[in-house]
Amino acid sequence: MIEMQEVSKTYPNGVNALSGINIHIEQGEFVYVVGTSGAGKSTFIKMMYREVRPSEGTISVNGINLSKLRLNKVPLLRRNIGVVFQDFKLLQNLSVYENVAFAMEVIEEQPAVIKRRVMETLELVGLKHKARMLPTELSGGEQQRVSIARSIVNAPKVVIADEPTGNLDPETSWEIMNIFEEINLRGTTIVMATHNKEIVNTIKHRVIAIEGGKIVRDEAKGEYGYES
């Protein structure tokens, strides 16, 4: 599903963000990516949806070699990858329904299919009753639910989440995690970068720890391993 072989990344300013990364993530896995600030987690995550390209090595997602992928093919790749951000990245002038539907409209899906899938997905994240509201009328947790709905409405094989609970209160964070658990149970691979020690130590999954640009731990049902 996701494979990195001898991946390194050095930015133009000379910062060596990652070095010698080798990883294999199977279809249907749930993986936490942990580490201190500046460890290389964000670069690791961004490489999976071709936001960042490696300086060396190869990356494959869904059987596609991202290292050789032409720029005009990146949108096709991202149709099969859902991305959830810490700051939601919703279109503020569009309703909840329109924000989620947008992900299907860009691939020119049939209107009837869009309506059915959007409403099904909003029901999954508990927001069907707020479909016509604007993001500014929602709480932070509700906006993150919209972001998740948008990321999964096209039934991607992989969802990549970059600190999805980072701006949320503890209760809301658990609600968001329950949604991710449900998505994973349906067969979607989830890779989540997080600083939330309590979540990692309570909802057990594979843990990949990155420090100094290198993988220092890779454990099935691992612990967070850092102070909060």
Task: Describe the fold and architecture.
The protein is α/β, with parallel strands linked by helices. The chain has a single domain (28-55, 79-219), classed as P-loop containing nucleotide triphosphate hydrolases (Rossmann fold). 31% of the residues lie in helices and 26% in strands. It is built from 7 helices and 10 strands. The strands form 2 sheets. The protein has a 6-stranded mixed beta sheet, with helices on both faces. It has a 4-stranded antiparallel beta sheet with strand order 2-1-4-5, covered by helices on one side. β9 (206-211) and β10 (214-219) form a beta hairpin. α3 (96-105) packs across α4 (111-124), α4 (111-124) crosses α5 and α5 (140-152) runs parallel beside α6. The longest helix is centred in the C-terminal third of the chain and has 16 residues, at 170-185. The two termini are 31 Å apart. The mean pLDDT is 92.
Specify the biggest β-sheet. 6 strands, mixed
Q: Could you list the spans in which at least 5 consecutive residues all have pLDDT below 50?
A: none
Domain module tally: 1
User: What is the total tally of β strands?
Assistant: 10
Helix-strand pattern? EEEHEEHEHHHEHEHEE
Function: Part of the ABC transporter FtsEX involved in cellular division.
Membrane topology: Peripheral membrane protein
Protein name: Cell division ATP-binding protein FtsE
Keywords: ATP-binding, Cell cycle, Cell division, Cell membrane, Membrane, Nucleotide-binding, Transport
Based on the model shown, name its key terms.
Rossmann fold; 7 helices; 228 residues; alpha/beta; six-stranded mixed sheet
